[in-house]
């Protein structure tokens, strides 16, 4: 993979520690920062229906704890 840098600039390699079983700490390359994406509630519900296929399963998926952590808001589905 080719690396690019400005003339005269020094590239610092960023690493993060990864804990493994047995208290072994390994170094891994840090991932790139994730860019934020605007997603509407309708888009989330439509994607949940595509994945789950049923109304109850989609509602459970949208209101799950993992979805709350990913979106930063708690979604409550009232049926």
Task: Write a concise keyword list for the protein shown above.
single chain; 79 residues; alpha+beta; two-stranded antiparallel ribbon; 3 helices
What is the CA-CA span between the terminal residues?
A: 51 Å
- Helix-strand topology string: EEHHH
Task: Note the main sheet.
Answer: 2 strands, antiparallel
Total E-strand runs: 2
| Class computed from helices, strands and strand pairing | alpha+beta
Total DSSP helices: 3
**Beta-strand share of residues:** 15-25%
Lateral strand order in the biggest sheet: 1-2
Helix fraction? 25-40%
Gyration radius from CA atoms, angstroms: 20 Å
Low-confidence runs? none
Describe this structure in a few short sentences.
The protein is of the alpha+beta class.
Written account of the structure:
With 79 residues, the protein is α+β, with helices and mostly antiparallel strands. It has a domain of 31 residues. The chain is built from three helices and two strands. Strand 1 and strand 2 form a beta hairpin. Helix 1 packs across helix 2. It starts with 14 loop residues before the first strand and ends in an 8-residue tail after the last helix. It comes from Cystobacter fuscus. This is Chaperonin.
């Amino acid at each position: 993979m080719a690396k690019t840098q400005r003339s005269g600039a020094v590239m610092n390699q960023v690493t993060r520690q990864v804990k493994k079983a047995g208290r072994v700490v390994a170094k891994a390359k840090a991932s790139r920062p994730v860019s934020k994406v605007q997603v509407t509630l309708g888009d989330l519900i439509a994607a949940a229906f595509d994945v789950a296929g049923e109304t109850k399963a989609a509602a459970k998926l949208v209101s799950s704890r993992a979805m709350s952590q990913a979106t930063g808001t708690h979604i409550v589905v009232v049926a």
